[in-house]
Amino acid sequence: MKNLKLIILFILNPITILFAQDETQKVTGFITSSSKPLANVEVAIKNHQKVVISDSRGRYETKVAPKQTLVFTSLGMKPVEIIIEDVTEVLNVNMVSKVENLKEVIVSKERVSKRKKMEERYVFDKNIFNTAYGYINARNSGHRVMTFDETDFEGTGAIDIFDFIQKFTSARVAVNESGTSEVILRYLPTLVKTPAPAGYDIDGSVTRDFPIHMSITDIKKLAIIYGPAISLRYGKTGLGGMIIINTKTANYKSDPDSPDQLYDYAKLRGDKYRGNAVPFPQNSYSEVYLSGIINSKTREEAVKNFVSEKDNFKHLPFYLFDVASYFKSAWGDHITKNIIYNEIEEIHGDNANVLKVLAYHFEIEGDTARAVDLYEKLLVLRPSYAQSYRDLANIYSENTLFTKAASIYSRYESHIRKDSTHGLSEIDSIIRTESKNFVILHGEKIAKDISKQVYKDTWPVRLLLEWSHTDAEFEVQLVHSNNNYTVNSNTMDERPDLMKKQKQIGYSSKQFYIDDIANGNWQINMKYFGNRTFEPTYIKATLFHNYNNSKKQSKQVKVFKFSEINQNFKILEITLDQTLLTMGD
User: Fold this and answer.
1) Residue 330 pLDDT exceeds 70
2) Angle 340-346-350 (CA atoms, 0-180°, nearest 5)?
3) Nearest 5°: phi and psi at 411?
4) Does residue 545 register a pLDDT over 50?
5) What stretches of residues are TPR repeats (predicted)?
6) Given the DSSP bridges, would you call strands 484-490 and 93-94 parallel, antiparallel or unpaired?
7) What is the mean pLDDT of the chain?
8) Are 473 and 530 in contact (CB under 8 A)?
9) In angstroms, rounded to a whole number, what is the distance separating the alpha carbons of residues 54 and 38?
10) How far apart are CA 243 and CA 143, in angstroms?
11) Domain annotation for the chain: domains and CATH numbers
């Protein structure tokens, strides 16, 4: 009952609460460089004077509070900064030399040089923009484009960005049938009855939402890209052209030693996929340390062996997950599996990462009621994490608790409009996407005609990835049947700014859209690089078909346990022919 009261309090007053945490926790780990122990590394809490030093084995131990940042510094090495979470107990760190390996420099010299030049020119060249696809020169994009910077806004008398657009460009601001404002960059009355509105790329976050909260004084640079050709990069969002906005609050540093450095992520490549991904293993459990159970000849013998071993390993939650997976897949024994799930929750109920993995399992098994309980507990454990609100609203909707879901969605949207501390993030876009989808599917259950208040654009495929450990690093590779591929990185090397924001805001999810512009088969690969602990990372993949179509939308959910690093795994295969959607093993 106490937890329930807390949950109600959080729903009524979401997001901007409980950032202060006074209790410290012990954090320990090993510091390495090129797989060798690194001694004499200084480990300190950011903006604090106390320092601990790693020993000859590279081991360190310190006390730190959640949300504080640990800084690792060593002579000749690039400094590392990592935000601590409530579950952080083990934190292993790999440091790299400030002097790049000569071979790597030669191989990537041309790409790095081009990226570096654009980074350096960003500050003074109003044609250089940072986008969801890295730094681009808008003038060399091959599209009809207009660019402006903050000096162009001075003395114009424009109230906001849209007032400026109407006064100084050929675009117009219109109000659609639902009363929502939108920018029309192209208007062909003889060919198009309802022209598509422009999409927005704001500091690398892509959205269709009209940024009504943004003041003209917030903007550093503005690019208006006309024509539907840009949709080859942005999908349906770009069918009406794109408005690219870089704000003054976004951090664009070119110092290679800075943890906030932005890179060109080479998200869209001209490279060809070489078929180097291997199928993801069928069994999610480790056969090595479960050998005593796996070698059992009967289910009863397996249960007996598990009971005899349990006391030695029950402090390891992922051992228990593996055992539960074994009984489910090898014997179809859901009774023993559920008993183990109950033990996991009882023993590790204060560990948010463990509860999240347990919730994933209940979701794929269709037990949404149990998942609701877990996501409510996660909100109590992590009230300052945006992911907690997204997950709870989503599972409320899945469990037909529509009024509760609507309450969270509406209050989160109100928070986004009031608080621009971190700018629009991936999780904000995800929650907005899902709140609109919720209204389309269930709005009339809340209020009559409410579903008419949002766009009903449908997407052939939406892919949502969620992961259990915020420190997880990986690359997602989306491969088309013609073997061209797209790479999205979630690593400290490529996107330190993104991973820092994930920790600050508290989220671990990202979404992808596959449009019918490129019909054909798609393969989704993932390469995992670890999570700074000795534990695995669980990744939940949700594949939506006919997204935002209230009559045809469907979904499939799979959970993957990643422990092997630096191996490119094929996790999904998608057929896009408007009639068939398959999810590969």
Assistant:
1) yes
2) 125
3) -75, -30
4) yes
5) 352-385
6) unpaired
7) 81
8) yes
9) 7
10) 13
11) 23-94 (2.60.40.1120), 103-254 (2.170.130.10)
The β-bridge relationship of strands 199-202 and 242-247 is parallel
DSSP H stretches of helix in 472-585: 496-505
What is the spatial distance between Cα 513 and Cα 351, in angstroms, rounded to a whole number?
Answer: 32
Q: How far is it, in rounded angstroms, from Cα 274 to Cα 486?
A: 13
Q: What element of type H or E holds 287?
A: none
Percent of the chain with pLDDT over 70: 79
| pLDDT confidence of residue 338 | 96
Mean pLDDT of 386-390: 95
Among residues 565, 567, 584, 575, the alpha carbon closest in space to that of 518 is found at: 575
Please count the CA atoms within 13 angstroms of the CA of 230 that sit on its side-chain side. 29
Instruction: Check if the beta carbon of residue 444 is closer than 8 Å to that of residue 450.
Output: yes
**Backbone phi and psi for residue 11, each to the nearest 5 degrees, phi listed first:** -65, -35
Q: Which H or E run contains 413?
A: helix 402-418
In one-letter notation, the amino acid at residue 173 is V
Q: Identify the three-state secondary structure at position 210.
A: coil
CB atoms within 10 A of CB 253: 15
Q: Are 250 and 423 in contact (CB under 8 A)?
A: yes
Q: If pLDDT is split at 50, 70 and 90, which confidence band does 250 have?
A: low
> In what order do the strands lie in the sheet containing 520-530?
268-272, 484-490, 473-480, 520-530, 568-576, 278-279
Backbone angles phi, psi at 225, to 5 degrees: -110, 120
Highest-scoring range by mean pLDDT, 16-30, 139-153, 254-268: 139-153
Residue 83 has pLDDT above 90, yes or no: yes
Q: 299-319: b or e for each residue (b if 16 or more CB lie within 10 Å)?
A: eeebbebbeebeeebbeebbb
Rounded Cα–Cα distance for residues 380 and 67 (Å): 16
Residue 427 has pLDDT above 80, yes or no: yes
- Residue among 532, 542, 430 at smallest CA distance from 491: 532
pLDDT at 115 over 70: no
Q: Which of 453, 454, 464, 475 lies closest to 540 in space, CA to CA?
A: 464
Is the distance from CB of 560 to CB of 487 less than 8 angstroms? no
How far is Cα 514 from Cα 37, in angstroms, rounded to an integer?
Answer: 43
Q: Which amino acid is at 152?
A: D
Q: What span, in angstroms and rounded, lies between the C-alpha atoms of 354 and 348?
A: 7
| pLDDT at position 18 over 80 | no
Rounded to an integer, what distance in angstroms lies between the CA atom of residue 398 and that of residue 369? 9
Distances (CA, A) of 498 to 262, 384, 461: 9, 18, 24
Higher pLDDT, 516 or 47: 47
Q: Are 164 and 158 in contact (CB under 8 A)?
A: yes
Q: What is the pLDDT of residues 488-513, one digit of tens each?
A: 899 998 888 889 999 999 999 999 88
335-345 pLDDT, tens per residue? 999 999 999 99
